Amino acid sequence: MSDLDRHDTIRAVHWRGDRLSLLDQRLLPFEERFVDCRSAAEVAQAIKDLVVRGAPAIGIAAAWGVVLAAQQDAATLDSAVRTLRASRPTAVNLMWALDRMLGLGSDVAALTAEAQAIQDEDLAANRHMGELGAALLAGGGVLTHCNTGSLATAGFGTALGVIRSGYAAGKISQVYAGETRPWLQGARLTMFELVRDGIPATLIADSAAAHLMRSGAVQWVIVGADRIAANGDTANKIGTYQLAISARHHGVKFMVVAPSSTVDMATADGAAIEIELRDTTELLSMAGKRTVVEGAQAWNPVFDVTPASLIDAIVTERGVIEHPDRHAMARLFTPGQH
Ligand SMILES: CSC[C@H]1O[C@H](OP(=O)(O)O)[C@H](O)[C@@H]1O
User: What are the catalytic residues (predicted)?
Assistant: First the structure.
């Protein structure tokens, strides 16, 4: 097993033939427990509750949810797909995967093969993007945000896949990970993956990012995506937009890494991307303990949109788009493709 092969040993999504086992990411890094989903409705609830999260991973989970629906009662397939589609609004991978499954009717064998293909294609795409993104690096430190690793995908990761490949190629000397409040995907999940891989990783507070960039310790900010519009505007975890502003101000390069299942050519620009608002309790408490006075209000958008003008490169498995705009996107993706 190559050094890189070791890195996708973490699997967030396991198809068991009659149920879908999901590594419960609400409990990581201190507890590794699986939630078994035996229906599309249970998969949809797991996506909504962030048992499984990460744009590619929720698309993969939803695809297996369609298989569960077909196994149980083909007559309920359409309503099962509607329930899955409504589970989270921003990551287009969810809609993309369901559209791929819908085209196959209710044949369980065909749906099973398609769900497996979606999962296998994602892992292959991540490894290829890892190489393409690593080729852009020239040493030094990188900063990443949220979690874009094996836990958010079929394995290896998108932005974290570039970091894995870049580190293995000697092109990264230090990885900084933002904690990513309020759900702490960076602190709880990315640090878990990097420490497990033996990659030198330093956790920073989200609010320390600009100060870190000003120090000169970071040459690239490398992030994932939940939806990339036809002009290259990119929706990603809340806090990404301000990282892009800080990066441009400090002369730090900004890379978005995402498979083509994240590209939504049917959405013209970032203004049209729906931003998920989650329960304010995620902001008003930490680890289940309230941290804010009763009666306080909160606002909890969990994604934001980075304009293409602040992105130096979008890495997909179809190729790298440098200085993205609608013309550059159209060279790799069909207008209107979703
Ligand atoms: C390769 S994961 C893409 C994306 O998904 C994460 O969001 P969430 O944890 O809420 O599902 C985050 O935005 C990642 O960058």
Answer: 226
- Whether 99 is catalytic: no
H runs (alpha helix) in 273-317: 281-284
Nearest residue (by CA) to ligand 1, atom 1, is 148
Interface confidence (ipTM) of the complex: 0.96
Task: Give the CA angle between residues 274, 275, 278 to the nearest 5°.
Answer: 130
Contact in structure between 160 and 4 (CB atoms under 8 Å): no
Residue whose C-alpha is closest to residue 263's, from 323, 321, 185, 190: 321
Q: Token pair for residue 315?
A: 């890495």
**Rounded to two decimals, what is the model's pTM?**
0.97
Q: How far apart (Å, rounded) are the C-alpha atoms in residues 107 and 96?
A: 19
| Pair 170, 178: CB distance under 8 Å | no
> Measured from the CB, is residue 54 less than 6 Å from ligand 1?
yes
**3-state SS assignment for residue 268:** coil
